[in-house]
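JOB MANIFEST
job_type = single_chain_structure
chain_count = 1
residues = 565
[input]
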Amino acid sequence: MDKLRNKPFCLDDEAIAWVNNTLASLTIDEKIAQLFCLIAYSSEEGYLSYLSEGLKVGGIMCRVMPNEEIEKTVSYVQTRSKVPMLISANLEAGGNGVSTSGSKVGCEMAIAATKNVEYATTLGRICGKEGRAAGVNWSFAPIADIDMNFRNPITNTRTFGGDPELVASFASAYIKAVQEEGLAATAKHFPGDGVDERDQHLVTSINSLSAEEWDKTYGRIYRECIEAGTKTIMVGHIMQPAWSKKINPSLKNENILPATLSKEIITGLLREHLGFEGLVITDATTMAGMNIAMERRKAVPQAIACGCDMFLFTKNLEEDFAYMKAGYEEGIITPKRLDEAVTRILALKASLGLHKDRMIPNRETMESLIGCEEHKKLASLVADESITLVKNKQDVLPISAEKYHRVLFYPIDSGEGQMGSGVDLSANHRFMEKLRKQGFDVTEFKPKPGFEGMMASSEEVKNNYDLIIYSANMATKSNQTIVRIEWAQPMGANVPIYVESVPTIFVSLENPYHLLDVPRVKTYINTYGSTDIILDSLIDKLMGRSPFKGQSPVDAFCGKWDTRL
């Protein structure tokens, strides 16, 4: 209990007494229930009553909902739960991580492309203000991963980029800002995503750095996040073999576990080596990365036994609760480990002042603050300073309707995204309409049916169009293996083959690495997002009304020589 006076909880005597008294008042079943952070999609009262009054879980995570649904959801569980709940949300890019009307300030990579750490502070402050207005007290951000591998399909623009020093400073700035607004920050995904090209949603992925390399990169980032006071860290279903074996030299390859199930990584690396005393939560336990490693009935209690304090989501609610309780009864989770985990959960709640004020949202405050004009203006500044002219080998810019009146527009889209970080399928249509409003005659490319010998002639394209614009709208999302362009039939009908005969601009609205697939395009732009604010800023830059200011936080040339031609 004395440790609770120190970072990251910094509790006073009154708060420590509340933690002690609350812990003493809980039954074993209630303690076990505190370990769970479950999901809330709506304000359906039967389900919410089951979570708050029946199971008495420790917290919920809100998916993105309208303000009315958020208010009802948070108000219901906070007024009916015996112990105040942790209310979390993925506040990675703005208040849009909890509310459908929330501000999207910019993804982490856009923030990093400004090369101004003050925008990371701005992001944290807006996430904190809009989250708090919605009753959220726990931000599942910042993402502290390094985008080392351009083939990784899930880190990508969600990260601050590929430079560990920049990631550390920007993540720390977010942590300080969001916690100053009264929310707990969560640095994720320990021990670090972005090295492997595989996604932990689908497979147990690997951070394959040596212990020394890890210490200089991810270790540095997490040390700075801990120094900045992050109250929580989210652990991924990611193996770190070098550290696992350094801590336990007798460990065989087949026995290396993902961090969420690994005592070596949680207790050895995070607690003892890095000295973290805050709360550790698993990443979503529905992911294959956890479930491949160990049968579910063992994995559920093992996550807590190895050092995690909270268990995020369930595959089957009743079954996972039964597995957790059986794990306690069988001694996998000891009474001491259970009390330690619940103490940290209660300490986090007390550090947020929830023992005094449960932060129940007020509709008037929500409507006035979430998505307000001030936050939209800040999002405009981020867009203006982040959009990056990666490659400019052709005298095309600036464009105008007089110089390039007839535009052939090639839209490239991927499937529907998930969890608030996926693709807005209207983006390319909105981009085309904004070009038309500037006076351009825009024709959307439609491949002609048929095979060899039946395609449009080269002369037809050269004679009918003054400019070609490609717009790729392919965002990171879970449950995909790559973020690569699949070209249209027949025979890649929409591949950029006219770059030597018709001025061509390629714009990536999301993934910064498309030069891999269009290496000979001479004018290439990354916007890191597709909101109207971003598209309006893009139009201004294309037409020369505003300069390009962003600097790529990653190697947009993907380490290839031909992408620079």
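[summary]
Residues 416-422 have pLDDT under 50 and may be disordered.
The radius of gyration is 25 Å.
exit_status = 0
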